[in-house]
Recover the amino acids of this structure.
């Protein structure tokens, strides 16, 4: 358990440091940071400065790492909490890949994913009485 705490603590420190990678880039090379590029897989209609590209990418990694740490830590204590963190982790991955793909250019898809994730989490946190079916379990 002690090793797990150290590993998760280090991951959280890395996540915090990643959120400031864009400012380090700007401090080390302001010309490169201000360069406007179109690094998306499906080319977007306008370029984005490298500093903002790094900022948004690292913010997504921050959410992914926080969700992973939460899922890993909660797995031993609560399966529901583990599922909630796993949903957030999957949402973070989807968000990151769609940013890399086309700068999140499909708003209806994102609203659908946000609503699906929110409903999934809501179903997990709402207490539900044990469901009794008409037939007994085959287990």
């Amino acid at each position: 358990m002690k090793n797990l705490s150290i590993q998760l603590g280090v991951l959280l420190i890395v996540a915090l440091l990643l959120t400031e990678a864009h400012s380090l880039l700007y401090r080390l090379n302001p010309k490169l940071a201000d360069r406007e590029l179109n690094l998306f897989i499906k080319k977007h209609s306008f370029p984005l400065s490298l500093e903002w590209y790094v900022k948004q990418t690292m913010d997504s990694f921050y959410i992914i790492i926080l969700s992973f740490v939460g899922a890993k830590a909660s797995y031993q204590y609560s399966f529901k909490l583990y599922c909630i963190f796993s949903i957030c982790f999957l949402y973070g991955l989807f968000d990151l890949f769609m940013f890399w793909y086309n700068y999140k250019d499909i708003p209806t898809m994102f609203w659908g994913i946000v609503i699906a994730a929110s409903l999934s989490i809501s179903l997990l946190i709402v207490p539900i009485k044990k469901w009794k079916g008409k037939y007994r379990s085959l287990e």
Residues 2-33+44-125 form one domain.
